[in-house]
User: What shape does this take?
Amino acid sequence: MDDVAKSADDPARLARFEARVAREDKVEPNDWMPDAYRRTLIRQISQHGHSEIVGMLPEGNWLTRAPTLRRKAILLAKVQDEAGHGLYLYAAAETLGISREELVEQLLTGAAKYSSIFNYPTLTWADVGAIGWLVDGAAIMNQIPLCRCSYGPYARAMIRICKEESFHQRQGFEIMLTLCRGTDEQKAMAQDALDRWWWPSLMMFGPHDSDSPHTDNSTRWKIKRVTNDELRQRFIDATVPQSSYLGLTIPDPKLRFDEKTGHWRTGEIDWAEFRRVIAGDGPCNRERLADRQAAHDDGEWVREAALAYGEKRRQQPAPFESALHAFSG
Ligand code: FAQ
Assistant: This one.
């Protein structure tokens, strides 16, 4: 029995729910929804939120070493945007009944997944360009269809996130363009970054459709609008010409243009590497969780101060009430 059937405790209710989703009505937090739909959303939205939070770390490593003040200011703004995305997504997950504390705990204890891409190191400044160009580029490709997700709070969060991601992608491409038009050494640095980020970026879209256990239900419920393989293909078709424009070479000897279909075809992704990375054994998994834990510990005083301030505000009469009090007194 699959998840959908198990959740069908009330078939009439389930049929109404599915008809509603089929009509493209948005599902809102207080509406009835099948358990499996709720669980799928909590899983996907929380994994997405964790990815945004951990995703700050690889680029955050370059904040103190950005080559110019302008680059530093842009990178700072981008990393702050990612924190904001994490917060919108955690807030969307909270509307489904999971608490912020549980979400944070799942991330810090390693019980939760986040995107495989953030377990790779950022060795040079060109990696900041490659992340913006490729990682944010892949993220937008995946996230634009999520703006039409059937769950209202997730869809609305994605609209704002996508606007910011498209700026991120352009800043990354612009870093790559500057390096590619620079010295031979700078261009070699850009090529090296592409060599290291290309395959992990293709893995971001998840396993092949034939190996993706969640795609069927998620598509039926209009959480997922486009499958992993279709999105990966769109990304490849958009990115290969950009790489030619930069004068860089995609690190895939099997890459070829298929005249019949009009698509670029790549060699096979190393799925063993993907599985290793999501199982916790990528190049930086341990470092990322340790850095996230340290950032969480360092933020303890901020959380305490915010709670104390909130408490003080609650105890003080509102300004209107105190004015009234003064008047009547
Ligand atoms: N990494 O059946 P499917 C960003 C897991 S945000 C790790 O295909 P589904 C912004 C999957 O969770 C990047 N795990 O699953 C930024 C499932 O595991 P489970 C994140 C992966 O959900 C840029 C299992 O494999 N974006 O980059 C990955 O239908 C720059 C089976 O997979 C999102 O999260 C992976 N790459 O499709 C920030 C977008 N792929 O839970 C900073 C929203 C798959 O059964 C700097 N998420 N898995 O144990 C989605 O669209 C979907 O969840 C997919 C996976 C497409 C990622």
